[in-house]
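Ticket closed. Logging final result for NADH-quinone oxidoreductase subunit E.
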Amino acid sequence: MGFSDATREKALEIIARYPADRSRSALLPLLHLVQSEEGSVSPAGVEFCAEMLGITKAQVGAVATFYTMYKRRPSGDWLVSVCTNTMCNVLGGQEIYDRLSEHLGVGHDETTADGTITFEHAECLAACDYGPVMTVNYEFFDQVDPDTAVHVVDQLRAGQRPQPTRGARLCTLKEMSLQLAGYAEPREEAMGDGPAGAPTLRGVRLAQDHGISVSGFDPDTPIKSSRGDAAPAATAAGLAANKPASDLKPAGDAPQPQKQALKEAK
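Final structure:
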């Protein structure tokens, strides 16, 4: 497919965020930008990114296939992920996954016939304290069971946007991809809601209940450098010893200092 002029303008804006000799660093947000228009990263999207950055399609494809957030096949508006890793699995994650798979008629990394939901199991959703969990476009639905999970996907298929347990309001995969490309969410109601939940704060609450604290700790104390005038010099020395790789050639072309020293010693 051809990309709109608006998308090309956004691509140029993204590339302009980076130094001219580091434009390749714009690849990740460019892939999100492509996905915000296509709903996935197609071969045409890979070619578009390669064209905009002046690199090969193979280089773009290597990145697009490495990260699971880039979908290589057409996806639904809603990516439903169920954690089946150890903690959530013990608490019923596999039962939730199996029930949803049967209810939706799809398996891992498949999309429903109506094109609304792409379904997957996830190895970890980083929310063990709320298990079992599932996410919709990476927003959390905590401590779900098979029935509540089915209710959520039924709402999605009916055109509704159920409220996640915590975090931001739901947005479609394309809307989310545009945010990840670096563009602010325009919907006022889409901002995050509420503080951290009770399971996340359990350790802090236990410490408070038992009078445990770090001696003299003041969270409002600014962090100061104890290195004095040596800090700028140390920073400069570190930069000189660790020059960033140029986009003009692959990193690692120059011999490593240790190998070079051994070679010269022979």
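The radius of gyration is 24 Å. No further action required.
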